[in-house]
Amino acid sequence: MEKEKNINEKIYEFESLVYQAGDTGGAYVIFPYNIREEFGRGRVKVSATFDGEPYDGSIVNMGVKGEDGGVCYIIGLRKDIRGKIGKQPGDTVFVTVKERLEEGSGMWTCPQCGREFKNKNQGHYCGKAPESIDAYIAAQPEEIQKYLKQVRDAVREAIPETEEKISWSMPTFWKKRNIIQFAAFKKHIGIYPGPEAVEEFGARLKGYKTSKGTIQLPYDKELPLDMIRDIAKWCYEKGGTQ
What we know:
Elements: E1 12-17, E2 19-21, E3 26-31, H1 35-39, E4 44-50, E5 53-65, E6 71-76, H2 79-85, E7 92-99, E8 108-109, E9 116-117, H3 133-138, H4 142-158, E10 163-167, E11 170-174, E12 178-184, E13 188-192, H5 195-200, E14 209-211, E15 214-218, H6 225-238
Antiparallel strand pairs: 1-7, 2-3, 3-6, 4-5, 4-7, 5-6, 8-9, 10-11, 11-12, 12-13, 13-15, 14-15
Helix pairs in contact: 4-6
């Protein structure tokens, strides 16, 4: 007889950036707790909400690494839900999560990454995060790579003392903490200097879309490289991102 499964009744509440999953249009949030300590295993079915919009899915390991190099666990954020709540990669979303027990759901589970989908063999991104900024840039569409290189060069010029790494699946400049990060999206480059920097440079950021700790630089406008240098230097001297 199968042993009855104990369900964790705790409701987890947190804010997360919406991260882009490769170049397929997918997105996810990061579950900011130790999943094995909380649930006793490495994959958990959950009922979640994103800005109040409900979703049943799973917390899974997709090879995403945190700033300390450790594995992060994620929850997929479907395109239709992003449309309903008006959030896209680079934005911040409020998340609630509770474990669920469901039998016979009829969902298809990808044998490679363990994520669940309504349709069998549904297309999605289940690759691993790039291991370097060079690899990250090389994986982007060719027409976007030049913009990423410009941002990288500007930040590197401003804070040459920092180390380059991948954290939260994004190019990151690090020195004992994440100083500043950036990422490529379909229509813009996202810069992640933290909320204090966005507030500090508010006057110079007029004309650009910002949210909590993020700046969107559209490809159809010239990149403000001087401002990027100044923001990076400010973050290094005054306080970084996460």
